[in-house]
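Hey, can you fold this one?
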Amino acid sequence: MATVSGFEMDIHHFPEGTKTADDAAKAIGCPVAAIIKSLVFVVVMDDGSDEAVVALVPGDKRLDTKALAEVSGAVRSRRASLEEARDATGYAAGGTPPFGHTRSLRVFADVSLKRNDPVWAAGGTPTTVFPISIPDLDRLAQPVWTEIAE
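Sure. Predicted structure:
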């Protein structure tokens, strides 16, 4: 078990992989809606500057990229490249946790994640996950709770 800011992460390892929300839900035996997809996106501001952000979306929904751009104050958003995602978070796509990134990033979470408690998040690799309560997720990821899912 790993401890982050007083939170004991009960890491579960699934050698067959938990890279997708469907894979994770099947391995864990939980609803797909209880899986957190930690998506790294780049939001582009009207002055042309950009910023990596993390969007937390339930496994049964898709990210609304226009809503993400709007809530972040950007004019558009795009999925980060694999290299951009690793550079911003320290983790590879498919294993990105909702917090504990190498850089301080803004995090946006869809309110529909609150349908399940606990929820399950990637544990830093495509084969590891951990359960987390909504209050602990809120405390550790410090997301802006909003509607960013289609």
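The helical segments are 21-28, 65-72, 82-89, 134-141. Let me know if you want another pass with a different chain boundary.
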